[in-house]
Amino acid sequence: MKLYNYFRSSASFRVRIALALKGLRYEYVPVHVAKGEHKQAGYADIAADQLVPALELDDGTRLSQSMAIIEYLDETFPTPALVPADALGRARVRALAQSIACEIHPVNNLRVLKYLSKELKVDEEAKNTWYRHWVRAGLESFERQLAQGSAGTYCFGDTPTLADCCLVPQIFNGQRFNTNFSGLPRTMAAFEACMALPAFQQAQPSACPDAEA
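^ thats the sequence. predicted structure below, dont judge the formating
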């Protein structure tokens, strides 16, 4: 398999975590989003949406969208499972994952931040304030959801799930913008538990071959 991705991309990070948790080998293909490489014609032939990540399977089939890619991997390589076996558990985990992937991430990804700066002429500090506001609000909601669930080491239970694959990249991204993580005990405990695992360490941006110093 080949994974077309950018080391700082939260969505790419999610897929790298899933691949590492499952022990799956793949070829790392860097696409430097900050330099606009995803907008070049050659990449459009690989990913019609011109986004990262894109996963190319051994037979040449290509998949897009991190959540769909992870679910494909989970169905194709079911051990260890990233969603629970029962329908209610799967719904809980997907809700947590989507709280980050659908509620926090879209308004704070690179193309949105660039639009604020370049098109709307928002200054750097205002742009960063925008970012921190939406990440903080989203994580407060995430914390409430965790508090209403059952106790566990990770976001859901005592093994990492799809929810953890989404949480860890969001925290990494938030750290770059000096987001306030205080008062989020369950959220940060899950993050710390994840980062104690080799799979999460191997997938982090600083471990990527295209990571910038």
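The chain has a mean pLDDT of 96.
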